[in-house]
Every structure is written in C-alpha cells, then in structure tokens.
C-alpha cells in the first residue's frame, strides 16, 4: 500500500509538521528571511493550513518561542523540588537546561538568538522570562544561605554567572557543532560554581 503524502496527513500531524518546519527554518534563516510559503513547502502542505492553525507566521513563531520558554521553566522547576541540597539543585538545573538544547536544538537556537538581541520579534518576551528565571535561581540561593550553605557575594550576580557558564558552552555548540556532553558539563559547571560562591571553601 502506498504511503500517504504529507498533504493527506491527519490534521494534528499537519500542525506538527508545520511546527517542525517552522522551527528548522527560523533557526537556520531567522524570522524575517523565512516566509509562509517556505514553511508550508517544507512541511509539505498548503500554506492555507498555516493560517488555519496559527493565523499567521507570527502566530507560529510565537508558539515556538512559547515552547522554548516552557522548556526553560521546566529546567528551573527541576531545581525547585523540595528536599534537595544546593549541589543537587545546581546539578538538576544545569542538566535540565543543557538538555533543552540537545532535545530541542532548533527552538533553543531561536531562544538564544532572541535573548542575545539578534532576534527579530520576541526579544522582550524572552528577556522578561530570563529576568524572572534569574530571580527564581537567586531566591533558591538565598534559601540555601538560610539552610546553612556557605555562600559569598550577591546571589543575583551568582545566578547570572551560573547561566553565563552554561551559555558559553551552548554558544560554542552552536558555533562549532560540537556535541554537548551534558553529564560531564553538568559536573564541571556545578563544581566550578559551588567553589566560586563558597569563596573557595567547597
């Protein structure tokens, strides 16, 4: 029996194909350089289906940005589980954060571009979410202080530094194509961070 073409895919599959095609093209070419017909052609469907599901190219792009923001929020949530000691909280955060790039590379690239100011549409939303994420991680560090962890310096600056270390490896991954070794990088970043915020006493 012949395999059905993408044009005859069930409706939910059409939506997924559009999201996949949009993520790939936006990641490769950016928002402005990607057209509705480009996305529809890559998905193998009529462009009317994009308007049906997302109303516009903007709507599809916003859906992808929303997925990226949700994934990062999930990484922070992994570190907020009750009962974790600070080292394990940091490991959970970094492991989950780096895993977003591995599991959703196109969406991660879109978010990264927007956050660095090279984005073309959603930067205010992404920056606002990142600012909130910094506040959440800073709060976790403040709690750790109350619980007896040896921490020096400003917890907000420490939170920025933590993400800064992770983002350096993500940036290198995007530029060189070198795979992210999530377990090894998680341990490296965690140990370096804990040693720094404890004033060398970790």
Keywords:
Tetracycline Repressor, domain 2, disordered N terminus, mainly alpha, Arc Repressor Mutant, subunit A, 202 residues, 9 helices
The CATH topology of the largest domain comes to Tetracycline Repressor, domain 2
Give the class-level CATH name of the largest domain: Mainly Alpha
Major sheet: size, sense and barrel closure?
Answer: none
Q: What Rg, in angstroms, do the CA atoms define?
A: 20 Å
Total separate domains: 2
What's the helix count?
9
CATH architecture of the largest domain: Orthogonal Bundle
The termini sit apart by 64 Å
How many strands appear in the DSSP assignment?
0
Helix-strand makeup class: mainly alpha
The pLDDT mean sits at 89
Q: Low-confidence runs (pLDDT<50, min 5 residues)?
A: 1-7
What's the CATH superfamily of the largest domain, by name? Tetracycline Repressor, domain 2
Query: What is the general shape?
Result: elongated
Order of helix and strand elements from N to C terminus: HHHHHHHHH
The helix content, as a percent range, equals over 70%
Describe it.
- This protein has 202 residues and is mainly α.
- It has 2 domains: 1-55, Homeodomain-like (Arc Repressor Mutant, subunit A, Orthogonal Bundle), CATH 1.10.10; 61-197, Tetracycline Repressor, domain 2.
- The chain contains 9 helices and no strands.
- The radius of gyration is 20 Å and the shape is elongated.
- The N and C termini lie far apart (64 Å).
């Amino acid at each position: 029996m012949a395999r059905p073409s993408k044009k005859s895919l069930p409706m939910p599959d059409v939506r997924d194909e559009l999201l996949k095609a949009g993520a790939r093209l936006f990641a490769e070419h950016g928002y402005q350089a990607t057209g509705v017909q480009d996305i529809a052609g890559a998905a193998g469907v009529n462009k009317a289906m994009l308007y049906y599901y997302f109303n516009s190219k903007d709507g599809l792009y916003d859906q992808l940005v929303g997925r990226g923001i949700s994934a990062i929020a999930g990484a922070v949530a992994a570190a907020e589980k009750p009962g974790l000691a600070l080292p394990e909280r940091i490991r959970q955060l970094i492991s989950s954060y780096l895993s977003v790039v591995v599991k959703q590379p196109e969406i991660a690239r879109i978010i990264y571009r927007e956050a660095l100011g090279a984005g073309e549409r959603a930067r205010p939303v992404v920056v606002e979410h990142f600012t909130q994420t910094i506040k959440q991680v800073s709060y976790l560090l403040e709690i750790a202080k109350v619980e007896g962890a040896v921490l020096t310096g400003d917890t907000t600056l420490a939170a920025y530094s933590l993400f800064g270390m992770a983002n350096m490896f993500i940036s290198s991954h995007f530029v060189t194509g070198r795979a992210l070794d999530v377990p090894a990088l998680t341990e490296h970043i965690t140990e370096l961070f804990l040693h720094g915020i404890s004033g060398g006493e970790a």
